[in-house]
Prior knowledge:
Radius of gyration: 21 Å
Low-confidence stretches: none
Oligomer: single chain
Structural class: alpha+beta
Strand order of the largest sheet: 6-7-5-15-16-17-14-18
Order of helices and strands: EHEHEHEEHEHEEHEEEEEHEEHEEHEEEH
Mean pLDDT: 95
Bound molecules: flavin-adenine dinucleotide
CATH topology of the largest domain: FAD/NAD(P)-binding domain
CATH superfamily of the largest domain: FAD/NAD(P)-binding domain
Amino acid sequence: MHPDVVVIGGGIVGCSCAYYLAQAGLKVHLFERDALGSGASKAGMCHLVTWEEPKIHLDLARESISLYGQLAGELKEDIQFRQTGSLSIVESPQSMPAISEMVQRLHGWGVAAQMISTQEAIQFEPAISPAIAGGVFYADDAQVNPLYATVGLSMAAREMGATIDPYTEVTAIELNPGKSSIRSLQTSRGRIQADNFVLAAGAWSGVVGKMLDLELPIKPRKGHLVLTAPLPTDRFRVKTIFSAGYLESVKGSENIAVSMNLQQTVNGNLLLGSSRQFAGFDRTVEPHVISRMIQRTLSLLPSLKDVFVIRSWAGLRPYTTDLLPVIGKAPQLENLYIAAGHEGLGITEGPITGKLISQLVTGHQPAMDIDCLSMERFQLKN
Ligand SMILES: Cc1cc2nc3c(=O)[nH]c(=O)nc-3n(C[C@H](O)[C@H](O)[C@H](O)COP(=O)(O)OP(=O)(O)OC[C@H]3O[C@@H](n4cnc5c(N)ncnc54)[C@H](O)[C@@H]3O)c2cc1C
């Protein structure tokens, strides 16, 4: 069997690629070394973010959320997609001018962002501590269940003829004699040849890149989450509430950055996040990080002190130094495409990434200008 495209990695990005490539009529084969979604995609929260700068993120998010709307109708599984809005809490009055400037910029790009006072924030969500300076309501933010979306995409791709092989690791990559293209992959279950290859191995993309002597500047950025027992689904008026200081934790280089982010899922459980740290590929849960996250949550939502925590885990975001994903053709290898490096926005940007990769592989003009996402922006050693 000789597929048109092999996809390496079965997270939200790889499964989106498989889905849109199969929909474009190509013969697809996806390899995932573990269970589908078992990397960052199962570990992530459910927030679809419409306001993260720079503008390319806004464009990707807008297109992707529109695709999620379609997928909610197309996929057999309920992916729990819903337009929830989100509330960003500004804790100190000194931060308000910078937040107000950001909101002005976002308005210029058509983002539905509304500055609100402390009083209005509490009216929006009475559980919030009154000791805050104000907030921003983002009406277009949404939620999806990342694992259901990942698995749903893979099952739909399979129904369109794709072969989806979990528990199959790509262990080596063989180039053609001129070294200008990939010839075959060695997997834990045999060798496979194909016309095109998509690297969508999330935080491990750099490791897979090394099999090709390709220096891909993507590294793991660990993030912890806490899950509580389900609460009544009407306990929170706003289903996603986070501290505006979250942005500093994304951009910062602090050893362990912790910010407050609460999301109530469709099932009623609360996801409490999150943290950011560089710790290699270690996914061990660190109790002192969990404890800091819970303290941050209680400082802004004190009424949660009686809620039961039932589980905690850590996952690895695929980090790039400029916090932008790599979506495009690999330089110097004619048949390799990269779809990786989405850091904390991979759930949001998964579907559009898959769609763009399918347009590139089939030789169509991508639906949006993605030159700034190419690998050429890094100093690459090949
Ligand atoms: C705590 C936390 C909270 C988050 N919250 C959000 C959020 O609210 N909204 C949002 O948009 N994003 C969020 N994210 C980010 C999001 O989860 C990631 O950006 C996204 O899951 C990346 O998807 P991916 O498919 O690129 O990577 P992954 O899901 O990691 O998939 C890559 C896959 O490749 C496989 N693989 C690796 N090497 C090989 C190999 N050699 N052979 C075969 N398979 C291989 C891995 O096993 C893995 O399953 C969060 C992340 C974390 C950690």
